[in-house]
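Please fill in the sequence for the structure shown.

STRUCTURE ENCODING:
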C-alpha cells in the first residue's frame, strides 16, 4: 500500500512539474529515494525509469483534452488553410532536433541522472535565466501558437534539446526561446505544450516498446495506473491555472526563484 501511495505522490509531482518551467525529470530524480516503488533494489532502476516515462503519457492526454477544440479545429482546417498546415508542419519540424539528439546521446543523458550535482546546478542555472529573462523588455510579434513560423519552430525545437540534461525544463527551454523569438507569453506556453505531444509521445512509445516484454503487469500495473491517474488530473488542473496566470500577465520569475531555492536546498542538504 505504501508503494501505491508513493506512486500517487510521484504522479502528482509529474503532473505539477511537467508543463511548468521547473523540470519534471529533475524533481522525479530528487524524490526517487524518498518515494521508492519497490523493495527490490536490483529492479528499482528499471521500474523508476519505466514509471517516470509512462506517467508522462496521461499528462500529454490532459493537454489534448484541455486544448481539444483548438487541436481539432486546426486538424479540420489543415486541408483548406495553409496556416494550419504550417502549424502541424512546425510541430513536426520542432520535434526533429530532440528526436535525433535523444537517439544520439540517450545513454550519456541517462548517466547524468547519477551525478548528484547535475540536477541542483541545472535547477539553479535555469532559475537565474528565468529571473533575468523577465527583466528584458519584449516586443512580441506572434500572438497564437498556430502562427509560429517554421524557422521559429525549428529554433525552439533545437533549444528544447537542452532538456536532455536532467534539471533543465523542456517547457522552460521552449517558452524562453519562444519568447526571445517574438512569441507572447501565451503563444510561447501553448506552443511548448503542443510541441510536447510528439516529443513526449515518441519518448513514451519508444520506452514502452523496448520495455514491454520486461514489464511485470501484476506488480508494475497498479503502480503505473495510480501514477497515471494522479498525473493526468494534476496536469489538467495545473495547466489550466498556469494559462490563466499568463493571461493576467504574470511572468516566469516566480518559477525562477522557486528553482533557485530548491537547487540551493538540495546542494546544502545533499541528495
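FILLED IN BY: designer on duty
SEQUENCE:
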Amino acid at each position: 500500500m505504501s508503494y501505491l501511495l508513493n506512486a500517487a505522490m510521484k504522479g502528482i509531482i509529474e503532473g505539477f512539474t511537467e508543463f511548468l518551467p521547473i523540470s519534471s525529470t529533475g524533481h522525479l530524480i530528487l524524490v526517487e529515494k524518498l518515494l521508492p516503488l519497490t523493495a527490490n533494489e536490483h529492479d528499482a532502476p528499471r521500474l523508476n525509469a519505466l514509471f517516470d516515462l509512462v506517467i508522462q503519457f496521461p499528462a500529454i492526454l490532459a493537454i489534448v483534452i484541455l486544448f481539444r477544440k483548438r487541436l481539432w479545429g486546426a486538424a479540420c482546417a489543415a486541408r483548406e488553410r495553409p496556416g494550419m498546415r504550417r502549424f502541424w508542419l512546425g510541430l513536426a519540424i520542432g520535434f526533429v532536433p530532440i528526436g535525433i539528439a535523444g537517439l544520439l546521446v540517450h545513454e550519456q543523458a541517462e548517466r547524468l541522472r547519477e551525478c548528484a550535482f547535475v540536477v541542483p546546478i541545472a535547477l539553479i542555472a535555469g532559475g537565474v535565466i528565468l529571473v533575468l529573462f523577465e527583466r528584458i523588455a519584449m516586443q512580441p510579434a506572434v500572438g497564437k501558437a498556430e502562427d509560429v513560423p517554421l524557422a521559429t519552430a525549428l529554433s525552439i525545437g533545437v533549444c528544447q534539446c537542452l532538456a536532455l540534461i536532467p534539471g533543465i525544463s523542456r517547457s522552460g527551454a521552449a517558452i524562453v526561446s519562444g519568447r526571445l523569438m517574438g512569441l507572447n507569453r501565451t503563444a510561447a506556453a501553448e506552443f511548448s505544450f503542443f510541441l510536447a505531444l510528439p516529443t513526449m509521445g515518441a519518448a513514451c512509445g519508444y520506452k514502452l516498446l523496448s520495455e514491454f516484454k520486461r514489464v511485470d503487469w501484476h506488480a508494475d500495473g497498479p503502480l503505473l495506473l495510480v501514477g497515471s491517474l494522479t498525473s493526468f488530473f494534476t496536469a489538467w488542473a495545473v495547466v489550466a491555472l498556469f494559462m490563466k496566470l499568463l493571461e493576467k500577465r504574470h511572468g516566469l520569475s516566480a518559477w525562477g526563484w522557486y528553482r533557485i531555492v530548491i537547487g540551493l536546498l538540495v546542494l546544502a542538504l545533499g541528495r
